[in-house]
From TrEMBL:
InterPro entries: MPC. GO terms for cellular component: mitochondrial inner membrane. Mediates the uptake of pyruvate into mitochondria. The keyword Nucleus does not apply. Belongs to the mitochondrial pyruvate carrier (MPC) (TC 2.A.105) family. GO terms for biological process: pyruvate import into mitochondria. It comes from the Eukaryota. Its main location: mitochondrion. Signal peptide: none annotated. This is Mitochondrial pyruvate carrier. It comes from Attheya septentrionalis.
Length: 133
């Protein structure tokens, strides 16, 4: 843990120097990405990258049984993806990575939400075996 702490502190302390070196090296795309306001040397880059892990987990589980899908949770995730997709384009700096991850979150959550609503409210009403005797 101490080694990881020292390595992390060194990375944080050395990041401004590395960013300047990469920006001034004229390495094409690498220099442009390093110099970007929402690039890898800012929190604007890493927060959406970690959120991709959450959204990715939802994509890997697209066929989850509907009895394991929470209606309130996926409603919240769907609307979070919808609202923050727009928000990512309004903040400065404009964060296209945040926008893309929120579009993905919206899509995967809406898929699960639609399946849950269909299973609980549409298919149940059409199934004659669910009628009370």
């Amino acid at each position: 843990a101490a080694v990881a702490g020292v390595a992390g502190a060194g990375a944080i302390a050395g990041a401004p120097f590395l960013r300047t070196a990469l920006t001034n090296a004229n390495l094409g795309v690498v220099s442009k990405v390093a110099a970007a306001d929402a690039g890898p040397f800012t929190v604007h880059f890493w927060a959406p990258m970690s959120k991709w892990m959450i959204s990715g987990a939802s994509f890997f589980d697209l066929h989850r049984p509907t009895d394991q899908i929470s209606l309130p949770q996926y409603t919240a995730l769907t609307f979070t993806g919808l609202f923050f997709s727009r928000y990512a384009l309004l903040v400065a700096p404009i964060n296209y990575t945040l926008c893309s991850v929120n579009i993905a979150l919206f899509g995967s959550s809406a898929w699960h939400l639609g399946r849950k609503i269909k299973a609980d409210y549409i298919d149940d009403k059409q199934d004659p075996s669910n009628k009370p005797e």
